[in-house]
Design a protein that fits this description.
By secondary structure, the chain is α+β, with helices and mostly antiparallel strands. The chain has one domain: YjbQ-like (Jelly Rolls), CATH 2.60.120.460. It is built from four helices and eight strands. The strands form two sheets. A five-stranded antiparallel sheet has the order 1-8-3-5-6, covered by helices on one side. Strand 5 and strand 6 form a beta hairpin. It starts with a strand and ends with a strand. 25% of the residues are buried. The mean pLDDT is 97. The structure holds zinc ion (ZN). The site of zinc ion has 5 residues, from helix 3.
């Protein structure tokens, strides 16, 4: 078994900023000219997520609206009693959505659906620079 580690950074605006990172992931993976592998895409941080979405204008409104119902901003969270950083909602959203995704590489192609993009969502209440780690196992 061999492991390749790759990474890139993403500058975000925070506040549930949804950024399509599909091309950056493809660029990183295809640069190694592999045929078959497990590709893990992971972001470090407790107020940021990685997931999949159809990156079209409607869903870019629908997903934040759904998360606003589950973990609304602007209400009291116990987390804010600990750090007073006002981002309890961001931590809860990030825990629910998760911080990694796996995409199989088969016969040299990442197996993403035609309307399936990989996105980074930054829930924090300020702009951030995030590091995305790509770990390729084959
Ligand atoms: Zn916090």
């Amino acid at each position: 078994m061999t492991i390749i580690n790759d990474r890139f950074t993403v500058n975000t605006k925070g506040n549930t900023d949804i950024i399509d990172i599909t091309q950056k992931v493809k660029h990183a993976v295809y640069s190694h000219s592999l045929q078959n592998a497990v590709v893990n895409v992971y972001v470090a941080g407790s107020t940021v997520s990685i997931t999949n979405i159809e990156f079209e204008p409607g869903l870019l409104v629908d997903l934040p609206e759904a998360l606003e119902k589950i973990a609304p901003a602007g209400v009291e969270y116990h987390h804010d009693e600990t750090w007073h950083d006002g981002n309890g909602y961001a931590h809860v959203r990030a825990s629910i959505v998760g911080n990694s995704t796996m995409v199989p590489l088969i016969d040299g192609a990442l197996q993403l659906g035609q309307w399936q993009q990989i996105v980074l969502i930054d829930f924090d209440n300020k702009s951030r620079t995030r590091t995305v780690y790509i770990q390729i196992v084959y």
